[in-house]
Amino acid sequence: MGKSRTKRFKRPQFSPTGNCQAEAAAAENGEEDNDGPAAELLEKLQHPTAEVRECACAGLARLVQQKPVLPALARRDAVRRLGPLLLDPSLAVRETAAGALRNLSACGGFEICDDMVTKDVMTPLVALLKECSAGLDSNEMSPQEKKDQSKNSSENIANEAVNVLWNICECSSRAVSIFNKEGCLEIVLKYLSRFSTNVDLAISVAHCLQTVTEDNPELLKSFSATALQVLESAMLCPVSSMEYILLKTLVAGTIWNLKDVIPSKSQAEIINAILKILSEVLEMDAGEIVIQMKEAETQRLKTAAETEEMLKNVNGDDLIEDVEMEEIPHKRKVRRKNFVSDLLPPTDKELRETIAVLTAQQTALEIVVNMCFSEDPSDDEWEELSSSDESDACMENPFSERGGQLLSPLCLSHEIHSALTNCFIPQKVFEKTASPNNVALDICSRNPTWKPLIRKMNTIQCRALVCLQSLVSLLDVDHLGGVTALQTLAQHLSQLLFSQPDFAKHDDFLEAISGALRALLQTMASKNISQCMTPDQLMAFCKAGIHSSNIGVRVNVVSILGITGSVLAKEAGTLETLKTTGRFLLEVATKDPSLVVAGEALDAVFDVFADGEEAEKASVQIKLLSALKEFQPVFKMKIRKEGRGKYSPDQLCVLDNVKMNLRRFVAYQETVEKRLTS
Predict the structure, then answer these.
(1) Closest of 113, 96, 19, 110 to residue 62, by C-alpha
(2) Which end of the chain has fewer surrounding CB within 10 Å, N or C?
């Protein structure tokens, strides 16, 4: 929804056990025959016996994790069949139906979630949320409800339902509209208010609120003073366990989204409170936490095993069944269901807590990025910034003042600027750009249940690099630590890049580090700070990056060459490097399938060859003028033929500017060539 948020992958969480294990295993084993298991399970959803319906839901929860089966489920209208079961008389069926829909919405992506809204899943989902909310206040329970209370309480069912709601709202604007109209805010805030007794449910609600409050002015009007107090209480909760750290971080993100409805006299105080929480989260050493928590888990399991062995020797095997199995994890009594928050899988507490910290750090970095881009320029300002049509009177050298300049930095408010620097956010973000702890990576790689944390640690590094890009673009050099700090940072990014021989294979990392490098080199060039990467290093990076399938990477690569080339153009003895740079950029401009990348490459050509004796000599020797003249009509034709169907209005506006600048630059190069060859 927001400009800078990246949709997080949510692991499907429903793992059937007990009587439903066989049904779920059968669903998994039917992977090759997609229609068979799907049809059988969907038929069982209508069975008169509640346990059969429950097991069918459990089987579907496993089945939807196999992507090839999703079309078969869509053909057989799985959503319309599962939806009514959210209001099934059996609480166990409600919970498993919500679990199946939760996994479907997590695995299916945007199209499936939007289809779920079309199939009217929101009607029973909202009704279920309202019933669960009413159930929290009710002291009267039927005998069946009392029997199922420990396994299927209102809070457990609500947790599953909130996760379905979160998944769908993150993917569908129509779902967000329904959230607004149906008064879901009051319901989920009631769940959040129970954070002191059910942190899992509170975390699920906080995830959902952070999503639905982003770019949603209609919902902001619904926030009363009481609602804000609920959020404030959760954010300022004194409990410091790892799960509560995640909760407070998510609530801080929600409160940031609500900044427009917070009284102006409280703005500075709220911003400082938010950034204090983010600072504390980023202060934590994730690698050390992984190491310590894995050691704690190992010790706990060892102690439990020794205790079990001792009991066997003293009392025999029969007594084991009467021992509290929670203390003996590998012999734990089977539970029929164990649903928890999306980012907290149903596993041992050490792993849960570690994942909570990693998720909190990722979220904190995303909030900082959102803060940096909270005050977007108007459309007129964007048009002005993306255009380089200074004046026809500058035809002699219309590009001499460009100097590879990126869009002008956005202005941070004084309150945000002060809070960022007072909480040492830039320094803490810099630290998070380091590669993950090798010992922690090794521990995770050797333990299957901990292995997914490797991806989380890598994601934190990528988010930190994106955050770094924002901070470098927005803060002045002094608040970034001064000239020496920027040079050290450039060396650090260079080491990160070239310490990974296969960096070109990791698109997320490559896009993040190329964006950070682009912003850093631009800042250094604008302040005449000497750059620490050699032209050969940059060219090696660019040659690898230009083959990426990610358009963002390719755009960053050519922009980096434009920035560094414009600096080299003003120095002596750079002729050969400029010729190599020019040939590379020309090849990208004329051969890249994306007009966005081609346009950026042409912009880089304008930057590199706009000024300087070495640049003029290089342009003549690589026959830049004739190459651009030949490409000019091709570029115009591509914009005319491909533009309307493939590119957004904003992209077309930029491409039109490039087309105009190309015409002007060709005219300028003609004067250069005449002067040098006459």
Answers:
(1) 96
(2) C
